[in-house]
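FAQ: What does the model actually see?

It sees only this:
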Amino acid sequence: MAQEKNSYEKIYEVVRQIPKGCVATYGQVAALAGNCRWARVVGYALHVNPDPEGIPCYRVVNREGRLSDAFAFGGVNRQKLLLEEEGVTVHENHVDLSTFQWKKSVF
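And it is asked to produce this:
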């Protein structure tokens, strides 16, 4: 259980760094948190986000730029609204990663 908390904290630390107007993928967050196999763990961590105001989980999308149908804090429409308020264009619940993906790399 301590390992799980530690991995969640690493994930939250990365998500806090995603700039306004940008998105990151679950896999990108996982890699930046230290384990490229944690993409699913990222989803679990964000679903139980203890601080939605301070940890902007709405900035995380899937590898295709799709919004989450299961966004824990108000559903896909809420995630879309929050992204659009930051200037991210959302078309049919999809974000163009070539335009809006956070450019931070693992290397």
